[in-house]
């Protein structure tokens, strides 16, 4: 069966889907952002002018002139809501907040309370603008996926290398890849050897050395010279395309969190509507001088009062405060719903390389045998100066005293190491296979070392070894302790790096569950297994291209934004901009504080609303009192939300 070609334009962050009543504006530029506020500005201006004309009892501002004026003022903010309510009704979803806002404000016009009708809808529109601002300020666009795909391939055709799109390259063609370029398609190596950075694909922190005839994968970066490969797959079947396909599918499977107000409106709206009907007709059975028009008037006032304006505005204000507080702390949430989702997390899965480690090689241990450490390192560094391998670069960063030695007659033994002359002595630098080939016995302790190890022999005698390892980030250990303190007790590490290295890092960090040697699909499978238990609410932290499918599939995907790959950053729901894993703990704390503030605002708004509703049903409250009550609650909600900007989370 032919595979569907990936359309990267179809990939969008979930935050774009969380706001169902899209205003239709493009929020990419400042001018377009301003356009979103124009309807509210027009309505507000006309409302203020109308209220002024009413207050001074201007002669011409009567009857139809007054109705038309307020009608025009209502249209910019009211028409989109009425239209949305009608569209929802056509889809069978009657009791939405759009329906409630529509009948309440139209009801205000029916009973002659024109400015109140405009004011209520305007207040609602302002709340929606706050909500849009909260989401649009923090969300990103999936545009960097195009940068991850290799965009050209140098193919040997007609006795020359031609630059073409990778999608046009056929199986069996010869492709040239220059130093620092990405492998455009999966294939086999035609050159004698090559060194590749595969960290983005596999999570393997150590560069991968490949010899002639072995497989190379699209998306790997060529670290040594110019190489040639023979393609074995079409681009759409390559490793990088498969990963992007998994991102797309995982995103499609991911459930989208609805904002509280959407769920609340489905319950609140029908209750209010039926109560209003009750206010109209039930008094007929209990009141002697029942007049239908009077009780209809009260019911319409009841509907106007019932509009959850303060409730609508207080919720996005709380989230806006949370998003702002997170941004100040170097944490970017791509939407208000992810603040909510973060509060429910009880299981944390993390990548290793670049997430809890620095992804940079450094010398961890030097052991010289029969030599002092300084002289031993001079011999080793003299040899490594002749190599371009990333491990050689890590060794050359080591600081030693004295003058440097010079190596001569250095030759590279493919897949084993280097051989040369330093100070008249024959020096071998490489792996155990090199030592075995030259009949040199190494210490048994080297067999138990799981990190990368460089063995050294001088004049056919074992002289020692150097252990090269990826360093833990400074706050990695403290992060795990802090996660336990905030109630995240289920922590798991998944890595594409060797299982032995992954297990060692997990032990150092006191993480009980860890698995290494995983491909991107293996990581995805592990998370899918965890998701089979509905009690598990999973957050995943990663930074590589290989982490993107898991980031998309998790309840909350968290990416390291400083050094992380573009795909991981764009796929994730939360970005840690400073690359510090400890910020994940802070993100959890900020989310919980935000939810607390939001619920305080909800209880405040609903409590005040309930009191005014009761007064309105008894004819003791007018619509203006309801509007002013909403304004007061909204101001209190603003002050409450502002507290988030001043809070400290340690």
From TrEMBL:
<keyword id="KW-1003">Cell membrane</keyword>
<dbReference type="InterPro" id="IPR027256">
    <property type="entry name" value="P-typ_ATPase_IB"/>
</dbReference>
<keyword id="KW-0067">ATP-binding</keyword>
<dbReference type="InterPro" id="IPR018303">
    <property type="entry name" value="ATPase_P-typ_P_site"/>
</dbReference>
<dbReference type="InterPro" id="IPR001757">
    <property type="entry name" value="P_typ_ATPase"/>
</dbReference>
<keyword id="KW-0472">Membrane</keyword>
<dbReference type="InterPro" id="IPR051014">
    <property type="entry name" value="Cation_Transport_ATPase_IB"/>
</dbReference>
<feature type="domain" description="P-type ATPase A">
    <location>
        <begin position="149"/>
        <end position="248"/>
    </location>
</feature>
<feature type="transmembrane region" description="Helical">
    <location>
        <begin position="623"/>
        <end position="642"/>
    </location>
</feature>
<keyword id="KW-1278">Translocase</keyword>
<dbReference type="Pfam" id="PF00122">
    <property type="entry name" value="E1-E2_ATPase"/>
</dbReference>
<dbReference type="InterPro" id="IPR044492">
    <property type="entry name" value="P_typ_ATPase_HD_dom"/>
</dbReference>
<feature type="region of interest" description="Disordered">
    <location>
        <begin position="1"/>
        <end position="28"/>
    </location>
</feature>
<comment type="similarity">
    <text>Belongs to the cation transport ATPase (P-type) (TC 3.A.3) family. Type IB subfamily.</text>
</comment>
<dbReference type="InterPro" id="IPR023214">
    <property type="entry name" value="HAD_sf"/>
</dbReference>
<feature type="transmembrane region" description="Helical">
    <location>
        <begin position="64"/>
        <end position="82"/>
    </location>
</feature>
<feature type="transmembrane region" description="Helical">
    <location>
        <begin position="299"/>
        <end position="320"/>
    </location>
</feature>
<dbReference type="InterPro" id="IPR036412">
    <property type="entry name" value="HAD-like_sf"/>
</dbReference>
<dbReference type="InterPro" id="IPR059000">
    <property type="entry name" value="ATPase_P-type_domA"/>
</dbReference>
<feature type="transmembrane region" description="Helical">
    <location>
        <begin position="597"/>
        <end position="617"/>
    </location>
</feature>
<keyword id="KW-1133">Transmembrane helix</keyword>
<keyword id="KW-0479">Metal-binding</keyword>
<dbReference type="Pfam" id="PF00702">
    <property type="entry name" value="Hydrolase"/>
</dbReference>
<feature type="compositionally biased region" description="Basic and acidic residues">
    <location>
        <begin position="7"/>
        <end position="28"/>
    </location>
</feature>
<keyword id="KW-0812">Transmembrane</keyword>
<feature type="transmembrane region" description="Helical">
    <location>
        <begin position="94"/>
        <end position="112"/>
    </location>
</feature>
<feature type="transmembrane region" description="Helical">
    <location>
        <begin position="118"/>
        <end position="135"/>
    </location>
</feature>
<keyword id="KW-0547">Nucleotide-binding</keyword>
<dbReference type="InterPro" id="IPR023299">
    <property type="entry name" value="ATPase_P-typ_cyto_dom_N"/>
</dbReference>
<dbReference type="InterPro" id="IPR023298">
    <property type="entry name" value="ATPase_P-typ_TM_dom_sf"/>
</dbReference>
<feature type="transmembrane region" description="Helical">
    <location>
        <begin position="36"/>
        <end position="58"/>
    </location>
</feature>
<dbReference type="InterPro" id="IPR008250">
    <property type="entry name" value="ATPase_P-typ_transduc_dom_A_sf"/>
</dbReference>
<protein>
    <recommendedName>
        <fullName>P-type Zn(2+) transporter</fullName>
        <ecNumber>7.2.2.12</ecNumber>
    </recommendedName>
</protein>
<feature type="transmembrane region" description="Helical">
    <location>
        <begin position="267"/>
        <end position="287"/>
    </location>
</feature>
């Amino acid at each position: 069966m032919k595979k569907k070609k990936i359309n990267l334009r179809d990939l969008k962050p979930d935050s774009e889907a969380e706001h169902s009543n899209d205003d239709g504006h493009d929020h990419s530029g400042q001018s377009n952002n301003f356009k979103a506020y124009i309807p509210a500005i027009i309505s507000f201006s006309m409302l203020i002018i109308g209220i002024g004309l009413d207050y001074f009892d201007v002669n011409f501002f009567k009857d139809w002139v007054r109705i038309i004026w307020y009608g025009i003022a209502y249209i910019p903010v009211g028409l989109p809501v009425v239209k949305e309510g009608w569209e929802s009704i056509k889809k069978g979803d009657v009791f939405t907040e759009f329906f409630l806002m529509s009948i309440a404000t139209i009801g205000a016009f029916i009973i002659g309370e024109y400015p109140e009708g405009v004011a209520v809808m305007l207040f609602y529109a302002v709340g929606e603008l706050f909500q849009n601002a909260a989401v649009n300020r923090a969300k990103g666009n999936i545009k960097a996926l195009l940068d991850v795909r290799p965009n050209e391939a140098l193919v040997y055709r007609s006795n020359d290398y031609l630059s073409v799109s990778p999608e046009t390259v056929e199986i069996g063609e010869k492709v040239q890849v220059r130093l620092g370029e990405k492998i455009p398609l999966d294939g086999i190596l035609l050159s004698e050897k090559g060194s590749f950075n595969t960290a983005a694909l596999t999570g393997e922190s150590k560069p991968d050395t490949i010899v002639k005839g072995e497989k190379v994968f699209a998306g790997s970066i060529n670290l040594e010279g110019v190489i040639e490969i023979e393609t074995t797959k079409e681009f759409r079947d390559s490793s990088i395309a498969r990963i992007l396909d998994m991102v797309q599918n995982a995103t499609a499977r991911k459930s989208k969190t609805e904002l509280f107000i959407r769920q609340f409106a489905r319950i609140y709206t029908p209750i209010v509507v039926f109560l209003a009907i009750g206010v109209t007709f039930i008094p007929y059975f209990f009141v002697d001088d029942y007049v239908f028009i009077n009780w209809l008037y009260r019911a319409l006032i009841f509907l106007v009062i019932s509009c959850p304006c303060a409730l609508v505005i207080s919720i996005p204000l709380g989230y806006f405060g949370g998003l702002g507080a997170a941004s100040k702390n170097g944490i970017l949430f791509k939407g208000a719903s992810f603040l909510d989702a973060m509060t429910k997390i009880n299981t944390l899965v993390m990548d290793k390389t670049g997430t809890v480690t620095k992804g940079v090689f450094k010398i961890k241990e030097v052991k010289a045998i029969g030599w002092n450490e300084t002289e031993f390192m001079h011999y080793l560094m003299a040899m490594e100066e002749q190599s371009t391998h990333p491990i050689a670069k890590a060794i050359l960063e080591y600081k030693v005293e004295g003058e440097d030695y010079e190596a001569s007659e250095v030759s590279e033994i493919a897949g084993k190491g280097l051989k040369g002359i330093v100070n008249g002595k024959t020096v071998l630098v490489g792996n155990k296979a090199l030592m075995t080939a030259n009949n040199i016995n190494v210490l048994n302790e080297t067999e138990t070392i799981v990190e990368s190890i460089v063995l050294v022999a001088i004049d056919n005698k074992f002289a020692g070894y150097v252990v090269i390892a990826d360093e833990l980030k400074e706050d990695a250990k403290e992060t795990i302790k802090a996660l336990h303190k905030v109630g995240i007790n289920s922590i798991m590490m998944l890595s594409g790096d060797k299982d032995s290295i992954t297990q060692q890092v997990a032990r150092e960090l006191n993480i009980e569950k860890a698995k290494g040697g995983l491909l991107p699909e293996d990581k995805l499978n592990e998370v899918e297994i965890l998701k089979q238990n509905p009690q598990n609410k999973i957050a995943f932290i990663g930074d590589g291209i290989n982490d993107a499918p898991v980031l998309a599939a998790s309840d909350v995907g968290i990416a390291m934004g400083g050094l992380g790959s573009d795909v991981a950053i764009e796929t994730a729901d939360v970005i840690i901009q400073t690359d510090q894993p400890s910020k994940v703990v802070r993100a959890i704390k900020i989310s919980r504080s935000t939810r607390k503030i939001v619920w305080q605002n909800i209880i405040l708004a609903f409590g005040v609303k309930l009191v005014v509703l009761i007064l309105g049903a008894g004819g003791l409250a007018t619509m203006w009192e309801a509007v002013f009550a909403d304004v007061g609650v909204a101001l209190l909600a603003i002050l409450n939300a502002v507290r988030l900007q001043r809070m400290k989370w340690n």
